[in-house]
Amino acid sequence: MQNTQDTQNEAIVNIYGADWCGDCKRAKAALERFGVSYAWHDIEHEDGAEARAIEISGQKHIPVVLFSDETFLVEPSANDLKTKLTELGVPIKD
Fold first, then answer.
1. Which residues pair with 65 in a beta bridge?
2. What is the CATH number of domain 2-87?
3. Edge-to-edge, what's the strand order for the sheet holding 13-17?
4. pLDDT at residue 94 above 60?
5. What burial class does residue 55 get, using C-beta atoms within 10 Å of its C-beta: 0-12 exposed, 13-18 middle, 19+ buried?
6. Which end of the chain is flanked by fewer CB atoms within 10 Å, N or C?
7. What sections of the chain are H helices per DSSP?
8. Hey, how many other C-beta atoms are within 10 angstroms of the C-beta on 4?
């Protein structure tokens, strides 16, 4: 699990995905660009991560991005992520 964890006032975001997944790479890059911490769960190498992603979303599409308020997005765009983080009151670098 990669962690760019947790500075004050930032929601913890959990991303469930795989290293080969382009949408996963884009979601991680967007969070890094926004300056938001996240925990990476590789569904191919972390025990239980794939089952947890399916449990959260009810589907097998990745990435599954789980937010601190227990809501999630599947295959989100950078704009989707930015909108949700803003809704949560997370400070975002532009």
1. 15, 73
2. 3.40.30.10
3. 2-3, 38-42, 13-17, 64-66, 72-74
4. yes
5. exposed
6. C
7. 22-34, 49-57, 78-87
8. 16
